[in-house]
Every structure is written in C-alpha cells, then in structure tokens.
Specification:
mainly beta, Jelly Rolls, six-stranded antiparallel β-sheet
Amino acid sequence: MDVVNIRDVVAFATKDGSEIRELLAPRNSGIRQQSLAEARLPSGAATTPHHHPLTEEIYYILEGAGRMRIGSDERLVGPGDAIAIPPGFTHQITNTGHETLKFLCCCAPAYEHADTVLEPEYNGD
C-alpha cells in the first residue's frame, strides 16, 4: 500500500514556475497512468503560460484565490473549484489573493517536464 504524507514530500519547481509536492506518481508509487501533486503559488505570482501536448489535468483549489485562464476563457477560482484542462490547451493560473494559493493537480498521463511547452506570449489561444 502506498501512502504518502505531504509533510514527507520534498518540493520542486515545475517548468511553469509553480512549487510542486508530488504525492503519488510512477516515480514514488505503484501508480502508472497518472500523478497527484499539491501546487503552491505565492500571492501575486502566476505560472508561465503553457500547454501539455499529451497530458490532461485537473486542478482542485484548496486554499486562496486565483484567476484561471484556459485558451481564451478566464474565470476567478477559489476553494472547492475543480478545473478541467484538456491536452493542448494553453493555460495559466494567477494568485489574486493575499495568501498562498494551494491546489491539487492531477495529471494523466503522469506529469513530466518534457510534456510542458512554455508560451511566454499568451494571447488567449
């Protein structure tokens, strides 16, 4: 049985600039087709706009307030919001609150830096 506690996970920075604590993934468990991580973004910070050619993601907001952009759609998000991010869609999340924005990120297939394409010039497409 694989049980991982967030207190025991070392944080790392993803290619898009968020701080991630990977809870379950092929690297540390019997899970093979997906990954689950907690992401943290300080007040006023934003991820670099990016997309994943292969991976679909779900963000689930735990704490804080943010603005989510997927393609040309933009929406304010907060605790309890689940966000579907299809493969290939450019996306960015910005912390609009005064506290750290914390959210779960589920990726299928599992997160890999190689499947992250940065797009510094985000025009909403």
